[in-house]
Amino acid sequence: MPLAPGSHLGPYEIVAPLGRGGMGEVYRARDMRLGREVAIKSLTAEFSRDPERLARFRREAQTLAALNHPNIAAIYGLEEAGEVPHLVLELVHGDTLAERLKRGPLPPREALALAIQVAAAIEAAHERGVVHRDLKPGNVMIAGSGTVKVLDFGLAKADQGPTVIGDLSESPTIAVQPAATVPGVILGTAAYMSPEQARGLPVDRRSDVWPFGCLVFEAYAGRPAFTGATVSDLIARILEREPDWSVLPAGAPPRVREILRRCLKKEAEARPRDIRDVRLELEDIASGGRQADATREKSIAVLPFENQSGPDDEYFADGVTDEILNALAQVEGLRVAARTSCFAFKGRREDLRLVGERLDVATVIEGTVRRSGSHLRITVQMVNAADGYQLWSQRYDRELTDVFAVQDEIANAIASRLRGTMGAESDRSRARSGTRDLEAYELLLRGRALQSKRGRFIPQAIACFERAVALDPGYAEALAWLADSYRLLGIFGVAPPNVEMPKARDLAERALRLDPGLAEAWVTLASIEEVYEHNYAKSDELYERALAAEPRNSRARAQRALWRAVRGALSEEEGLAEVRRSVEDDPLNAWVGGMCSQVLGVAGLHEESIAEAERSLELDPDSFYSHWNVMRAHAWAGHYERAIQEAPALFSASGRHQWALGLLGCTYGRSSHTELARACHDELEARSRHEFIAPSWLAVTAASCGLLEQAIQWTERAVAGRDPLILWARSFPFWERIREHPRFEEVMRGAW
Fold first, then answer.
1. Which tens digit of pLDDT belongs to each residue from 497-543?
2. Tens of pLDDT, residues 154-175
């Protein structure tokens, strides 16, 4: 029977319900004698009448009473009320690890600290002969102080050597993301079940080592080690496949990776037998600190410099930041956090130690820019991300015409300061492909700021880049940005691709003749060869050139992964590994997260696709692409009404952009709102008479309202007009009806 707030259980006053688990309900209560808050766990009415579950509940009390450890939630007593037992437990304030992971992976140092504390708790249980058997993120609580508490020993069992689980009442619940439960099987979670438990084989303390490995993997990666759309799929992956090790962040020390590999061995005999050894090794890694992860020492983030001039100079301060960041990126042996991830902190007063954790770097640079007339003042400081202490600072007072020289001077000073930890020459290996024309430089900065907003701002950006090139025809960077702006016009259906793509190609080639090392220009050419020329071998070659010039170019890697996955050139595992690496290289880049979400959706991992889309929207709430991706992810998952609810926000961000209207029409069609789907299609068709509308959107919206002959005709036009989105026809949802048309393969022969 539920406990009502204000009621009493012995000396405890019930305050409020806290949650409900598989067997019981948990309440917040106050100990009236000692004036402290406690948690009270009680069996549900159904289970309180089951002798077997009553016995298990009492066994949990006995188990907890035998354990006394700072990382295990303590038991204060066992209260009886009407022959129903109630556990009185320590109330831990904070989030479960499962709740914390909804916000993304833990920073590497926090993940390591958590792993040590969980290992210590399991070690204490094992020393008392207790195997937990249900270790998972939902049973690990993180207090506000960072202290970790392991909860729920309801499945715990005395370790008397290997024991066979002989019936389902003693086996773990089969529960997968978010909660695909199997009726009648009531305890545990399949995603963290060891292979021997899944097979019903003997289990011992090594069966706690497996879920420990799963839990720590998830803390670092932000996603489970094993997933599956169904229980059978999940168990098959546990038994047959390795985790995707590529999703572990660069900040995960190599020794931690090796520990996880040992903990997640399929055969129990191959795992560490004693988790004490695991704890000691993790503590050794932590005590070695910075020496244990030498890669981190050679890493830096450059935060957006604060603009201390007028609002019209915001782009100028950003440009100074960019130039310093780009200069440092040429330093041999130095890992520089990606621009977009650094700029996610623009305008935010974050603790620099937190910034270091989020971006996985050892050093953080921040500064200010002020210009007044022809005078320029730049201040810079370098901070140790581990402790927040300032390592170096400097103020530069120059004439505005010296901006290029001072940017180089700052970059060289930073590299010189880092030389001691890098142990290598740190001069830049390649000169900046810039300009000495200050007006052209300012136009480039203004154009980049406009282009990043996409949509209606792209023509304004093009005007800035064209003026910059007119002032300095040899300005390679301005040519590269101008090229990519024309490419975007063709991709987003603003103008016919057969008009914009040739312009983009010519400009990118001009930029590369001036500076062959411009990765952005190589990416633009690779995209044109893939989505417009359909020369896939050439596209692959050009992407390789881009990544050779800039190995951590997240745009190149994510873009290549999506389009290659769409046309079937990558396996599901390869595509996912590529986009996940892009996110790892540039974790706070909302666009990269959106590309990752699309690849997850193509792979049928819809819940992960939704989570990644929503994370990206949190990173950039004003982004049209982020809003589109959230709606798309829900629509692909079959959450049609939920997707339709996203439409107003998408239209607010984009206007009635054809991507937004087309997606809405397809969603209406999928949800049997045929008349509304027809209205979306009719609007797009009417607009196509006086503005360019991509034939692909007209094709899928026609199909969504049953106009299949019109749909195949629009598909023919898309192929003939080299519509970039025609490649989506191979594998994207919403193209199914067209793919079933008898003429589909014949029509598409010209596209692949």
1. 999 999 999 999 999 999 998 999 999 999 999 999 999 999 999 99
2. 444 444 444 333 332 233 333 3
- Strand pairing class (130-131; 94-96): unpaired
Least confident of 72-86, 115-129, 365-379: 72-86
Task: Give the 3-state secondary structure of residue 320.
Answer: helix
Q: Which residue has the higher pLDDT, 619 or 429?
A: 619
Q: Is-catalytic flag, 134?
A: yes
pLDDT tens-digit series, residues 404-417:
788 878 888 887 77
620 phi and psi angles, rounded to 5 deg: -140, 80
Length of the chain counted residue by residue: 752
Q: Which of 622, 590, 599, 326 is nearest to 480 (CA)?
A: 326
The two tokens of residue 658 are 């054809």
Sheet holding 12-20, edge to edge: 8-9, 12-20, 24-31, 36-43, 84-90, 75-81
Radius of gyration of the chain (CA): 29
Catalytic residue among 134, 293, 360, 515: 134
CA distance 55 to 23: 12
Alpha helices in 646-706 (DSSP H): 647-654, 658-670, 674-687, 695-704
Torsion region of 493: left, alpha or beta (phi above 0 gives left; psi -120 to 50 gives alpha): left
Q: How far apart are CA 489 and CA 492, in angstroms?
A: 6
pLDDT range class, residue 270, cuts 50, 70, 90: confident
CB atoms within 10 A of CB 33: 9
Secondary element (H or E) of residue 364: strand 363-372
Q: What is the sign, positive or negative, of the torsion defined by CA atoms of 68, 74, 79, 83?
A: negative
Distance CA(693)–CA(704), nearest Å, equals 17
What's the one-letter identity of residue 250? Answer: A
Cα 356 to the chain's mean position, in Å? 17
Judging by beta carbons within 10 Å of its beta carbon (0-12, 13-18, 19+), is residue 702 exposed, middle or buried?
buried
DSSP string, 696-721: HHHHHHHHHTT-HHHHHHHHHHHHHT
Residue in 534, 509, 536 with CA at minimum distance from that of residue 521? 509
How many whole angstroms from its chain centre is CA 174? 26
Given pLDDT bands bounded at 50, 70 and 90, which one contains residue 454?
Answer: low
Kindly report the backbone phi and psi dihedral angles of residue 189, in degrees, each rounded to the nearest multiple of 5, phi listed first: -140, 125
Number of C-beta neighbours around residue 111 at 10 A: 24
